[in-house]
């Protein structure tokens, strides 16, 4: 039952993706921002909408919300990185739940699944920790650290994807979708982190008065 419910969620999400796959007509800040990065349509469709939802919610309670995530419809690069990391964490949590045995209905005795589990259980936990670390680093303005952690998380998931390529059926569909989305969002996070300006350092000490 849990497996079927999860599959329905993924199928509904896929239909939503297909419905929204076209880029908005004309030029807009999010379209222009997403043009030079990997997966520009996913960037506009997924990150753009998430960012707009956050901006609209903030604007509904404060006239100073633009200082947090930009004004609705505008692009705040730092907020876009945070949104990409959040989206990656959501996708990763699905795969992590499978690897940790939290979703009933999977036959874990199948040799191919055993190989997948043995290689990915620890790897996925490590990747999720790196995402949380990257999020903290972005908030602190430590952009290089955030980029490094997100890049290493991509490497973790790449090796995991190879270990699970022999799976089939519903479990393959669920893991493939979640891991692919995980990597997409992380690659977008890395791309936008590279564009962030470094946090200004402390001002130089005042000269001593003689």
Automatic annotation (TrEMBL):
Give the keywords, sorted: Signal
One MF term from GO for this chain?
enzyme inhibitor activity
Q: Which residues form a coiled coil?
A: none
Q: Which Gene3D superfamilies match?
A: Invertase/pectin methylesterase inhibitor family protein
Q: Which residues form the Pectinesterase inhibitor domain?
A: 30-190
- What residue range is the signal peptide? 1-20
NCBIfam families, alphabetized: PME_inhib (TIGR01614)
Q: What is this protein called?
A: Pectinesterase inhibitor domain-containing protein
Origin species, per record, is Eleusine coracana subsp. coracana
Question: Which gene is this protein's source?
Answer: gb10362
């Amino acid at each position: 039952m849990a497996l079927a419910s999860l599959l329905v969620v993924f199928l509904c999400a896929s239909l939503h993706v297909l419905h929204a796959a076209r880029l908005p007509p004309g030029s807009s800040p999010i379209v222009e921002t997403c043009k030079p990065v990997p997966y520009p349509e996913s960037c506009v469709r997924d990150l753009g909408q998430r960012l707009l939802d956050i901006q609209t919610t903030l604007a509904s309670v404060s006239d100073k919300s633009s200082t947090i995530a930009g004004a609705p419809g505008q692009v705040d690069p730092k907020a876009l990185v945070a949104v990409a990391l959040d989206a990656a964490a959501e996708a990763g949590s699905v795969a992590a739940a499978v690897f940790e045995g939290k979703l009933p209905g999977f036959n874990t005795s199948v040799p191919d699944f055993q190989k997948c589990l043995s290689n990915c259980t620890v790897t996925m936990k490590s990747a999720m920790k790196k995402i949380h670390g990257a999020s903290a680093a972005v908030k602190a303005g430590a952009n290089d650290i955030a980029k490094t952690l997100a890049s290493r998380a991509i490497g973790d998931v790449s090796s995991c994807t190879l270990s699970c390529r022999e799976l089939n059926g519903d479990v393959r569909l669920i893991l493939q979708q979640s891991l692919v989305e995980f990597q997409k969002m992380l690659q977008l996070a890395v791309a936008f982190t590279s564009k962030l300006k470094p946090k200004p350092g402390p001002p130089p000490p005042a000269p001593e008065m003689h």
